[in-house]
Amino acid sequence: AQKITQTQPGMFVQEKEAVTLDCTYDTSDQSYGLFWYKQPSSGEMIFLIYQGSYDEQNATEGRYSLNFQKARKSANLVISASQLGDSAMYFCAMREVGNQFYFGTGTSLTVIP
Amino acid sequence: GAGVSQSPRYKVAKRGQDVALRCDPISGHVSLFWYQQALGQGPEFLTYFQNEAQLDKSGLPSDRFFAERPEGSVSTLKIQRTQQEDSAVYLCASSFRQGRAFFGQGTRLTVV
Fold first, then answer.
1. In the prediction, which pLDDT does B1 show?
2. CA triplet B60, B69, A43: central angle to 5 degrees?
3. Mean pLDDT computed over A56-74
4. B106 Cβ under 8 Å from any chain A Cβ
C-alpha cells in the first residue's frame, strides 16, 4: 500500500485565490511527522510546513496552512493568496520514528495571472 | 556552507562506466538519506544512514548501487556499470533526528 497518496496530478488556481492540495497517508504508528515540500523547475526541494501527529492545532507558516484530519489520515496543504511564484510541484511526505521519509507522487500547481 | 552540498551537480556517464556521487550534509545532522527522482516523479527512497550506520538500504535497485558514510558525515553513492535507466536526479537530504529533511541541489545523472 502507498504510504502517501496525492490524487491531483495537476491543479490550476487564479492569482490571489486560495488552493488546497490533497494528501492522504497510511501508517499504523502513533508518532509520525507530516511535511510539505515545494519543488520549482530549478529542482531544489523547499520545505514549507510540518505537522506532528500529536499536534492538536493545524500548522501554519505564513500563507501556508496544513489541514490535519488525523482520523481521516489526511494532511492537505492550503495556500492562501496564490502568487505566480507558487507555480511548482508540491510533495507531501511522512516520516515515522526512526524511518525514512515517504513521498507522494506530487501535484503540479499552476498559478494563472 | 550551511546547507547540504552535493557534487557534481551534473554528470554524464557512458553506459558501463562507474560513477560516484558525493553528499556533504549539514554539520551535526545524524540522519542522511539518498533519493532517486525520475523526471516528473516524486523522490524514491534509496537508502538511509544514522551516523555511520546504514539502517535501511531496501530502496537500492540493484547490487550495482552502493552507499557509504564511513565517518558519519560525508556520504558517497556509487553506481557501478551504469545503465540508461539509472538516468535521474539523485537527491541527498539530512536531518537532525526526527526533524525535517534538508535537501541538497541534487546530482543530475545522464547515462548515454
1. 53
2. 60
3. 96
4. yes
